[in-house]
Amino acid sequence: MQLLDGKLASQAIKDDLKIKVEELKKQGNKVPHLAAVLVGNNGASETYVASKVKSCEEIGFKSTLLHLENNVSEEELLEVIHKLNYDKDVDGILMQLPMPKHISEEKIINLIDPAKDVDGFHPVSVGKMVLGSETFISATPYGILLLLHHYNIKTKGKHAVVIGRSNIVGRPISILLSRNDDTGNCTVTLCHSHTKNLKEICLQADIIIAALGKPGFLKADMVKQDVVIIDVGITRVSDASKKSGYTLKGDVDFENVSSMCSYITPVPGGVGPMTIAALLMNTYKACCENHSPLSPEGGNKKDYGGDGELNIVH
């Protein structure tokens, strides 16, 4: 069994991006700028956003955090997004989810300029992803692809089972794994709460993506020997032995399943860091495409993976 270390893989990506940013500065070109918008005081969201901002600082990106009160009106938030769309210095816009119930997430996401949609949630981005066109892939599915690539895990001809059908992870990764490219060509089964014979389906899988948000759901008797498991779930579970009062658990019963695997992601430290790395990759790509000194015509497109060896940045 080998751990798919997201911290290690994401650091390799950040190190590479840092070199690229330093080169941009030497040439007098614009560096990427990510603007993150956070509404309210959700502890988990604040932690996630802080980690993304810190990662930007580490590699030389410019970052802006707009932290708005929980009672901000939908109209005020729409105006914030509108201003970011027209700010030529901003390359990528991250709208941290979830948002307060009085705000329509759909309306906010739909307003984001697709050219700055580095989270890949805009309908234009999703539609292009489905069609196989060049676009921004949402950060968690993209991070999974980057992790598979980093560890040279072959997907061609494999049976991949995806548990969970969310628009953020399950649906997009099922499409991406089935595409005709270096991290695709799988036969994909997408499972959900109404799937019958789930155990039997999982036992056929060469690759399992667990993304349903139920800690310890995937048990040892549901997987075959040498399976590759990507655990996307991360849930706070009460733990009196911890100073924080909780421990983080994935969707996989790691203690009993890991011995069955050829590769498996830890929780935490697996998919989470890769999501941030993918967001940084998307922001760098947005800067390339939105500013003429870094345009593909200038010969830099392959730095983003568009025409390069890693053909999964779309």
Which architecture of the largest domain would the CATH scheme give at its second level?
A: 3-Layer(aba) Sandwich
Gross morphology is globular
Walk across the major sheet and give the strand order.
1-11-8-7-5-6
- What is the CATH C level class of the largest domain, in words? Alpha Beta
- How large a portion of the residues is in β-strands, by DSSP E? 15-25%
Report on this model:
The chain has 314 residues and is of the alpha/beta class. It has 2 domains: 27-114, Leucine Dehydrogenase, chain A, domain 1 (Rossmann fold, 3-Layer(aba) Sandwich); 139-272, Rossmann fold, CATH 3.40.50. The chain is 37% helix and 16% strand. The strands form 3 sheets. The protein has a 6-stranded parallel sheet. It starts with a strand and ends in a 24-residue tail after the last helix. Mean pLDDT is 91; it is low at 293-314.
What brief labels describe this structure?
314 residues; alpha/beta; Rossmann fold; 2 domains; six-stranded parallel beta sheet; three-stranded parallel beta sheet; 10 helices; 37% helix; globular; disordered C terminus
What is the secondary structure topology, with strand pairs?
Blueprint: E1 2-3, H1 6-26, E2 33-39, H2 43-59, E3 62-68, H3 74-86, E4 92-95, H4 105-111, H5 123-131, H6 139-150, E5 159-163, H7 170-178, E6 187-191, H8 198-202, E7 207-210, E8 227-231, E9 235-238, E10 246-249, H9 254-257, E11 261-264, H10 271-290
Helix pairs in contact: 1-10, 2-10, 6-7, 6-10
